Every structure is written in C-alpha cells, then in structure tokens.
Amino acid sequence: MISIGLGQLITIVMLIGVSLVCMLWFHSFWREQRREARRRRIAIQCRICGCNYAIPRRADRVTRCPACGSLNERGGLPQI
C-alpha cells in the first residue's frame, strides 16, 4: 500500500484542481478564437456607411449593403 501524508495529499488534489481549471480556460479561449475567426470570415463592413453585416458562406463575392445599398466586395473585417 502507498503511504501518503496529509500535506502531500492536499498538494496533489490542489495540483489536479488547478490543472483542470487551466485546461478548461485554455479550451474556452481556443473555442472563442475559432468563433471570432469564423465571424470575421463571413462579415463585411460597408465602405460607404460603415455598416457591418453578415453574408452566407456561398454568397457572391460582391454583395449589396442592407443599409445604404452600395456594392461591397467580400474581404472580411480587419483585425483589431
């Protein structure tokens, strides 16, 4: 049988808990980065009025702004 002192047991449990929290945080951060990248791929910002709008993935390369009606080319939103 393995003998572990109380101090060692508490340290092991704390390390497991901290590791779990870090893994969950990294997973949520990675998922949010992927979502933001997807949003930027399907979003267009109008060059005339500045309106941001989403387009379907398979839409034409040139779309019409819903606010002012000007034609805009797909290019995605710039990085912040």
Summarize the structure.
The protein has 80 residues and is of the alpha+beta class. The protein contains 1 helix and 4 strands, in the order αββββ.
Topology:
Elements: H1 6-42, E1 43-45, E2 52-54, E3 62-64, E4 71-73
What does this structure look like?
The chain is an alpha+beta fold and 80 residues long. It has one domain (6-73). Helices cover 46% and strands 15% of the residues. The strands form two sheets. Strands 1-2 form a two-stranded antiparallel ribbon. It is rod-shaped. The model has no long low-confidence stretch (mean pLDDT 86).
E-strand count: 4
How do the helices and strands follow one another from N- to C-terminus? HEEEE
Shape: rod-shaped
Strand line-up in the sheet with most strands: 1-2
Any low-confidence stretches, pLDDT <50, length ≥5?
none
Provide the structure class: alpha+beta
Largest sheet: 2 strands, antiparallel
Mean of residue pLDDT? Answer: 86
Query: Cα distance, first to last residue?
Result: 57 Å
- The radius of gyration is 24 Å
Strand percentage lies at 15-25%
Number of domains: 1
How many helical stretches? 1
- The helix content is 40-55%
